[in-house]
Design brief:
The protein is an alpha/beta fold and 344 residues long. The protein is built from 12 helices and 15 strands.
Length: 344
């Protein structure tokens, strides 16, 4: 995988999906279920969309870890990138969530899978900040440049700058915070609906950053990395064009292939010129997910990327020291083990 584009992802197959009433107040992208559509019908449609995304990613050679969720009290669990992120070097972050009914989306089994299949060194858990009323909803709140180590963040109820700075200190990123609003002056609830950073291309709605000075600073920070900037309009943002993510797949011959995953709705909103720029560095994989998008998020929100080294399937033989530890669990200190391994 590249530093920016992971070759494995986590998806949550939320079997009782429905738009979350608790998040509607500050999510201008959220919509009601069509009149007369039952909860069962909504859930069935959403499941088909989740499965289609998983199939499309596997088709291009991306490793997909799917976790089922039957809990009816977790309507937004299909969006795991808000509570979890992974980072090169074996680091994992767990985040504080704004809506109280989203806080139990955090799952020990997901973390255990990461520890068993990938090299995890440290898990940093910020969820204890929730009682203090400060939140940072993962890679929804932040759009991370993993190459230049910059965390682009639109201020909102879901992106507290103090927590952002703490995350950046812990994980070695440069915080780049700014205000972003729509034409009605409503703050953007998550940065990842207006921006996407790939290896060689960045898509962003710079026009939604009202401060001209800060807007140019963001533009310059992206451009200095050598990426081509695709500027998106607010109308395209409302079609979820910014809510995309670059992944690293494999061709049938085993060669790397970079793909930009987005919804079919987002793909339709792009101009031919924008598509041409994106496809200079990666191919677009578009999946129709209209039911999921009722909840105010799209393909990027559904994907938690795995930026970790895979653990080999077969570990080497344990050393004598490890065998001694396993056989003597009550050993009080290292001296006794030394005596066992190297008798005097």
């Amino acid at each position: 995988m590249s530093a920016q584009a992971p070759n494995a992802v986590i998806l949550i197959r939320a079997e009782r999906f429905t738009p979350n009433p608790a998040t509607a107040a500050d999510n201008a992208f959220q919509r009601d279920v069509p009149s007369g559509q039952s909860d069962d019908a909504t859930a069935t449609k959403a499941l088909a969309e989740m499965d289609a995304l998983a199939d499309a990613l596997r088709e291009v050679g991306v490793t997909v870890h799917v976790f089922a969720d039957e809990d009816v009290t977790r309507p937004d669990s299909v969006f795991p990138n808000n509570w979890l992120s992974t980072h090169a070097g074996g680091y994992v972050a767990v985040y504080p969530m704004y809506a109280s009914n989203r806080r139990h989306e955090r799952r020990a089994d997901v973390l255990e899978m990461l520890k068993s299949e990938y090299r995890v060194q440290t898990i940093v858990d910020y969820s204890g900040l929730e009682p203090d009323g400060v939140f940072l909803e993962g890679t929804g709140a932040m759009v991370l440049d993993h190459v230049s180590r910059v965390a682009y963040t639109a201020r909102s109820h879901r992106a507290d700058i103090a927590v952002l700075e703490r995350f950046c200190t812990d994980f070695g990123y440069e915080p780049m915070a700014f205000d972003a609003v729509d034409s009605d002056g409503v703050p953007v609830y998550h940065t990842n609906v207006i921006a996407c950073i790939g290896t060689d291309v960045a898509m962003i709605a710079l026009s939604m950053i009202p401060d001209e000075v800060r807007r140019e600073q963001v533009r310059e920070r992206l451009a200095v990395t050598g990426r081509t900037i695709v500027e998106l309009s607010e109308e395209q943002i409302r079609e979820f064009a910014g809510n995309a993510v670059e992944l690293c797949g494999r061709t049938p011959e085993g060669k790397r292939r970079y793909v930009m995953a987005m919804s079919a709705r987002a793909r339709r909103s792009l101009t031919p010129a924008q598509v041409a720029v994106i496809e200079e560095s990666c191919e677009i994989v578009a999946v129709d997910i209209p039911t999921i998008e009722l909840a105010g998020g799209s393909v990027r929100c559904m994907i938690a990327g795995v930026h970790l080294d895979h653990r080999p399937s077969a570990e080497g033989e344990p050393t004598a020291a490890v065998e001694a530890i396993d056989e003597n669990p009550n050993t009080a200190d290292g001296q006794e083990l030394v005596d066992i391994i190297q008798p005097s």
